[in-house]
Amino acid sequence: KDKRLTALACGKAQLGLGHSYSRAKVKFNVNRVDNMIIQCSAIGDQLDKEINTNVMRLKEWYGYHFPELVKLVPDNLMYAKVVMLIKNRKAMSEDIADKLE
Question: Which of 5, 67, 76, 77 makes a 20 to 30 Å CA pair with 22?
Answer without folding.
Answer: 5
